[in-house]
Design goal:
Blueprint: H1 3-26, H2 33-47, H3 51-66, H4 69-100, H5 105-134, H6 139-168, H7 170-192, H8 223-226, H9 230-251, H10 253-259, H11 264-292, H12 294-314, H13 322-347, H14 352-369, H15 378-402
Length: 407
């Protein structure tokens, strides 16, 4: 094969992998919070459970389900995304089937566990690992493209599934989602999911050589080795903050805006500004990461976080609340992409699945612990968030100065 033909083949293969990753992340919607939220009230009414009880079961199912991520990460390191895509797709569909059979608190909790494990620890992890295997210089932008599948899923799935919930019931709606995941992801997975590009005679980054940017280390660090680096703890702090602070502030959003004198409809309207800023930041940070690397862009995300929390603490109604809401969305979008793209940049690919799986658990733990800070007081919660952000920024500066220097 001539170099031009190989370049054309690499460009086509890389493009198909990027689109497949977008579809793969989109297909995780049944296991994402935005996909579950429409089912909460119908399940509460049908099962005779208290809403708070159902939300507690969801939180526990999320935490226990994500504990499978390190195991899945080891499997994807060993077998690659292509060999795992069919099992994880079948697992997501089966989990939707388990949800349709729930008839009490125990079975509902088990359903949440397998659903979150299959979609988040399974399909999402496998999909994003494929992106890291195929892209180096374009890793940030393709990661951002794939993560837009979350926004697309939130826009498309709930409106499509709501008529089924209202007409045939929530159990049937889960079966419809199971069939949809199989119908979409089995063909996409079998046709377009790939292991390393070298195995199919292709090259990374669409076969293009791009000046500048950052490259993946030639030798991949093990999980044990990564634990001794500044970069590991920097990215750990970032995933704790993006999940913990994002979850905590969004759950407290309406109360905080009411305390600032804003009406409920105005507070709900601010969620649109937050989502828009998150989408813009997701795409923008992907391009910035490709140009400057993940670690400095992470510092930008931490600045967004600091401004948002400080604004909420001292001037929550600034700009009608838009200043706080927009920077919160920008923080979430930026730090999510920094975490997703930065691990390969810092630690290489050989053991990346294991490292990513471990940090999945760290991130979900942050999401679970973040709202608990408000049990003390809002002011104490804001102080804790800013304190962790300051530690993260320090780690980031050290990581930029010394690369993956061991601690």
């Amino acid at each position: 094969m001539t170099s031009s033909a190989r370049g054309a083949s690499s460009a086509t293969s890389g493009g198909l992998v990027a689109i497949a990753a977008l579809i793969g992340v989109f297909a995780t919607t049944p296991g994402q919070t935005v996909g579950v939220s429409a089912f909460i009230d119908p399940m509460v009414a049908d099962l005779g459970l208290d809403r708070a009880h159902v939300l507690l079961l969801y939180s526990l199912g999320t935490f226990l389900g994500i504990l499978t991520a390190p195991f899945v990460g080891k499997l994807v390191d060993r077998f690659g995304p292509r060999r795992l895509i069919v099992p994880v797709v079948v697992a997501v569909a089966a989990a939707c089937g388990v949800m349709s059979l729930a008839n009490n608190a125990w079975s509902l909790g088990a359903g949440f566990l397998v659903l979150r494990a299959a979609a988040i620890a399974g399909l999402s992890l496998v999909t994003m690992q494929m992106v890291n295997l195929w892209f180096d210089r374009f890793r940030g932008r393709v990661t951002a493209l794939a993560m837009m599948g979350l926004a697309l899923g939130g826009l498309v799935i709930p409106p499509l599934i709501e008529p089924v919930i209202q007409g045939q019931g929530w159990r049937t709606a889960y079966l419809v989602q199971a069939a949809g995941v199989l119908a979409v992801m089995l063909p996409v997975g079998l046709a377009f999911y790939r292991n390393r590009p070298e195995e199919s005679g292709a090259a990374r980054d669409f076969g293009r050589r791009v000046a500048g940017g950052t490259s993946i280390p030639a030798v991949g660090l093990t999980l044990a080795e990564s634990l001794h680096t500044n970069a590991f703890w920097y990215f750990s702090a970032i995933t704790i903050l993006s999940n913990g602070v994002g979850t905590a502030l969004m759950l407290d959003h309406v109360r905080a805006m009411a305390a600032a004198g804003l009406a409920r409809d105005s507070a709900i309207g601010l969620l649109g500004a937050m989502t828009t800023a998150q989408a813009v930041a997701t795409l923008g940070s992907g391009a910035l990461i490709d140009r400057f690397g993940a670690r400095p862009v992470g510092l930008l995300g931490l600045c967004f976080l600091g401004f948002s929390v400080t604004c909420l603490w001292n001037s929550p109604a600034l700009g009608g609340g838009i200043a706080y809401a927009a920077t919160l969305g920008a923080m979430i979008g930026t730090l999510q992409i920094v975490y997703s793209a930065g691990l390969a940049e810092a630690f290489g690919l050989k053991h990346l699945g294991t490292i990513r799986g471990t940090l999945f658990v760290v991130g979900v733990s942050g999401a679970a612990a973040g709202p608990l800070a408000f049990l003390l007081s809002p002011a104490m919660a804001y102080s804790i968030f800013l304190g962790i952000a300051a530690v993260a920024a320090t780690l980031g500066l050290v990581a930029m100065r010394f690369g993956v220097k061991k601690t």
